[in-house]
Amino acid sequence: MVKRLFLIVGSAALLLTGCSTENQSNPQVLIDNLPAGIKLVEQHSAKSDGEVSIPFSKYQLDNGLTVVLHEDHSDPLVHVDVTYHVGSAREEVGKSGFAHFFEHMMFQGSKNVEDDEHFKIITEAGGSMNGSTNSDRTNYYETVPANQLEKVLWLESDRMGFLLDTVTQEKFEIQRETVKNERGQSYDNQPYGLRSERNGETLYPVGHPYSWSTIGYVEDLDRVTVEDLKAFFKRWYGPNNAVLTIGGDIDKNKTLAWVKKYFGSIPKGPTVDAPEKLAVTLESDRYVTIEDQVYLPLIQLTYPTVYVRHPDEAPLDVLSDILGGGKTSLFYKNLVKDNHAVQAMVSHPCRELSCEFQLIALANPAKSTKLSDLQRRIEESLLEFESRGVSADDLARTKASIESSTIFGLQSVSGKVSTLAANETFDGKPDLVQYDLNRYNDVTAEDVMRVYRKYIKGKAKVVLSIVPAGQTELVAKAQNFELPERDLTTTTVNQKVKAPVIVDDFDRSIMPKAGPNPTVKVPEYQRTHFENGIEMLTHSTDETPTVTLLLSLEGGPLLDPIEKAGLASFTAEMMNESTTTMSNEQMANELALLGSQISFNAGGRYTQIRVNSLVHNLDKTLALLKTKLFNPAFLQEDFNRIKQSLGQQMQQQLKNPSVLAARATDTLLYGQNNRISLPDSGNLTTLNNIELEDVKAFYQQYYSPSMANLVIVGDIDQKQISQDIQFLIDWQGKSYQIPEYQPFPKHKEAKIYLVDKPGAAQSVVRIVELALPYDPSGQQFKSKLMNYPLGGMFNSRINLNLREDKGYTYGASSRFVGGKTLGRFQASADVKQENTGDSIKEFLTEIQQFSQTGMTESELLSMRSAYTQADALSYETPSSKANFLNHLLTYDLEREYREKQGEIIKNISLEELNELARTLLDINRMQVIVVADAQKVKPQLTELAREIVEINVSE
Questions:
Q1: CATH at residue 167
Q2: Which of 242, 274, 180, 886 is nearest to 553 (CA)?
Q3: Structural domain span for residue 928
Q4: What is the C-alpha to C-alpha distance for residues 377 and 335, in angstroms, rounded to an integer?
Q5: 511-558 pLDDT, tens per residue?
Q6: What is the pTM of this model?
Q7: Is 517 exposed, middle or buried (0-12, 13-18, 19+ CB in 10 A)?
Q8: In the listed set 218, 242, 257, which residue is the last one of a domain according to the structure?
C-alpha cells in the first residue's frame, strides 16, 4: 500500500483553504508583545484558494527550543507533543535500546513529580497520554481538556530539565525488566515478531543506525550502567534538540507565557547536527531464514531505495500501490485471488536516512508449499508490470486515495499536532501537507517506470523466509548470509553524570492549578424511525467535507447455527466480493477512483456496513453501496477462495497465545453448547460445514432492515440525506428472532486451566468470571467506577504491583466488560515465564485485598476527577460522534444518559463502591487461565493450591 507521511494530519473545515508561509505584515508588533527570550520565526496562515493547510505560528526560545502553536477552537481540548530528534539511530553499537528505554524512564518521575505521578495527574485531568520511539525520533504527548494545559507544560518541562537526578539504579533496573517484558510480548512471543529486526540486520551494513531495532538487544541493557543512560539523555534531550507543538483550544499569548515560564530556564544541550543520509546498496541477493512458531510460511523481498521526501519517494510509493495496493493490484490478482497466498502486499516505508521497498506474501500451504514458488510468482508479477506499464487508472486511483485519506485525516487536533511536530523535526517546515499532495499529484507514468528500473529491476535484495520450526525445506533459498558477530567492545561511563543547574523565579514544586472545567456539548442529532424497521440518527458537522455512514444489522454471529459457526462472518466476507453487475476488481477500482470505502463485517452482536466518502462523491458511493447490498453475486470461485484463505488464517491464529487465551475464556464462561463460546469466524470444524447455499440462505433471511440501526455523521443536509438513502428507506425484509442462550456452565470450584503452548516465550494469564451485562446507570456502570483503582488505569494497584514493583509484565489490568446481554470480569497480563506462578499470586492477592478493604478516599477522588473531565475528549472527530450515536441506538439510550452518569460519579459514596467490591470480587468464583509452555510452568502452578486442568482449544 502507498505510504504517506502526511496522512496523519487533522483539521477543521477552515483548513481546506490556501496555505502561505510568511511573516505577518508587521511582525515587529508581534515580537514586541512576546515574552522576553522568545522570537517569532514564522507565521503561517490560510488563504481561500482551495489548498490544504494547517495554520501555525512558530517561535524559538533563547535556549533553542522550537515552539509551534496551532489554534482550533472547535472542541474544548488541547494536544501537546514534545518531539526529541533522537531515536535508535542516534545510539552507539553495543548500546542499543537507549532511546526506547528513555521513553519508559520519562514517565517515572522527575525532581518535582513523584514516581508514576505523571500518569496519575493526566488521568485525573480526564486526559490521555503516551510516548513513542522509532529509529529517528522520540515523542511524548498528552490530550487533555483545555483547562489543563498549564499543568501539562509544567510536567513536560520538569522531565526535560529535571529528570537526571531522579534516574536511580532501582528505577533503571525496574524499567529494564519492563523493556524485557515488552520485547517478549511484542517480539519474541509473537508469530513473525522478529521479521523487522532480522530484515534490518541483513539489509544494513554493520554499524548502520538502522541495523538494529528500536527496542534494542536485551544484552546491551544488561551490560550498561545507569550512568551510560544518563549520559545519553544529557547528550540528546536538550531543548535545542526538541520541538514543542501545542494545538487546540488555546489562548496564544497565555500559552507562550507559560512556555517561557516553564521551559525558558532550561539550558541548551550540546549542538546536534543533522544525520548523514548514506545510500545503502547490496552487491548480491542475501537470503536469510527464521524458524518460528508459525503455521503459514512468509516471504519478504526488500530492496533499498532512497530516503524520506527524496524526489523519487513519491513515484516509488505509487509503484508500491500499483503492485500491491488492494484488489486492483497485480499482487492480488496473481497471488491472492488464485489462492497462492493468504495475504500479499507491497509497501515502501520511509525513514529519515533510508527507505525500503518491501514485497511480502503469506503462503497458502494448500497451493504453494514452498516459498521459492511464491518468489517466482512475485518476480513474474514484476515482469508483468514491466510489460503492461502504468495505466491512467493506476495514477487516478492513487491520487484519489491520497486526497480522500488526507481530508479524512483533517479531523483531530492530535493528528494536526503530530504532523506539524514531525515535519518541523525533520524538515524545519511544520506544514508540508499541500507540498506532499502536490508531489504525489505530479507523479507521471514515466516517473513510476523510471524508479522501477532504477531501484527494483534486476537489483540485489534481501529475501527473508519465515517458516515453521523444523521445516527449512520450505525456504525460498538456502541461507547464504550470516549475520556478523556484534562488536561489544563499548566504552562505559564511569563518572557520575551531573544534572544541569537551573535557576527559576518561581517554585516548581507547586503544581499549577487547572482553570474552570470547559463546557462539553453532547452532539445534537435527529432521530427518525422508518416503517421498514430502521432507526436512524444523523448529525451534521461541517468540520470536514466527509460523510461516515454505519448500518448495523442486529444478530450477526448470534444467528449462526452452532455447527456452522462463522456463517455470518463468512457472509459478510462474500458481501465484499463480486456483485451481479461488477466484478470484485471493477468494484474496487470504482471505489478507489472515488477515494471511498465500503466494508462489510460481522462480529459480536452485529453485521455492520461502514461507508466513508468525501461529500462530493457521496452520491456515487451510495450507488455502489446499493449495488453491493442488493446485488451480491455469491460466486462459487469467490466462496472457494475465501473458505480456503479463512482456513489457513485460522491455523495461523492457533499459533498466537492471545488467541488461545480468548478461546479458553469463552469456552469456560459460556460452555460448549453456545454459539458465543466459539470465535466470530468459527473454527476449522464449523468452517468446513459451511457451503455456498448456507451463505445465500443467511443473506436472504438476515440481511433485513427489520432490526437495523443507521448512523450518518458528516457534512450533510438533513433533508437531502433522506433522499440520498431512499433505497434503504424502501428496503423490505423479513423479521427474525435472535436465539436464546443455552445454560452457562456453573463452576463449583476455582481452578487453573492450562493451555499448552510449547516453546512460548511468555505466559498469558487471564482471571475471569461471568458478570453483569451493560447498563448505563446501574450496578454494571458502578462496577467500572469501582474497578478504576484496582485495574482500570496505569496507576492501578494491579499494574503498579506487577509491572512497576515486581517487573513481571509489560502491563496488567482488570475490567468489567458489559455487552447488551452478557458481561464478565477479566484481569489479564502477559508475564515472564519464570514468574507465572508469582504473577497469579499477586493478581489474586490484589483482588482479594481490594474486595475486603475497598478503595480509599483519595482513590475515590481520583476516579471522580478522571471520569468527570474526560468528556472533553469524547466527541472531537466525526468517527467519535458516530460511535456515540451508534451506542445510543444499540442500547436504546437518550443523549441525557451521560448527564445521569455524571451525577452518579459525583454523588456515589465510598461505602456503596466498597460494598460492590465485596459483592462482585470473589476470587473463589474466578477461574484462572494460563497459556504457556506447560512443561516449564506447571511446577509453579502446583504451588497455588488449585486444581490444574489441561485443556485444548485448538480444534
A1: 3.30.830.10
A2: 886
A3: 752-950
A4: 7
A5: 999 988 888 888 899 999 999 999 999 999 888 889 999 999 999 999
A6: 0.90
A7: middle
A8: 257
